[in-house]
Amino acid sequence: MLIRSGLTLMALAAAVVLAVTSTSAAQGKKSDQVVKARATASKADGKEIVSISLEIDPRYYLYANPVGNADFETNATNVKITSKNKLDSVKVDYPAGELKKDKTVGDYKIYKGKVMIKATVQRAKDDSDPLDLAIKVQACDEKSCLAPGTIKLSVP
Question: N or C: at which end does the chain have fewer Cβ atoms within 10 angstroms?
Fold first, then answer.
């Protein structure tokens, strides 16, 4: 009886994964297609402040960073900043997410609408090459999630 219950649960879990995957594939969209992003950079106290604006399609939300649920950590919005030259340091400050209550998978935090992310970059003294940004996003609606996507931007 215990084995039969375990098999039933595994089959149910597989069906849920298949349903979510097929819904996402059927939509044919990636998460980066439902998010508009812009970035600007300014200098302050010998450091560069990068301001990243995300505008999320109102039908979707993104997983916040931190997401507040270990099961979704890999889905959290993530900003990576690089340059042709090695950067001395990069510190990204993510805004607090909105708490989404979910009785099935547990509560987690999300971003909706417009989101501002700030990053402080310390460069080598003579480095003036553009900064390359890669913003990893995972967009979902109330029924399913789109495939993850990465938005690439460059700031002087």
Answer: N
CATH number for 116: 2.60.40.1250
Of the candidates 123, 125, 137, 146, the one whose C-alpha atom is nearest the C-alpha of residue 52 is 137
Q: Which are the contacts of 57, defined by CB distance < 8 A and separation ≥ 6? A: 34, 35, 139
- For β-strands 47-56 and 35-44, DSSP reports them as antiparallel
Range of the domain at 85: 30-155
Rounded to 5 degrees, φ, ψ at 155 are: -125, 140
Taking all residues of the chain, what is their mean pLDDT, rounded to a whole number? 86
pTM recorded for the entire structure = 0.81
Look at the chain and report how many structural domains it folds into.
1
The closest alpha carbon to 105, from 17, 3, 4, 8, belongs to: 17
- Whether 13 is covered by a domain: the verdict is no
Of 95 and 20, the structure prediction assigns the larger pLDDT to 95
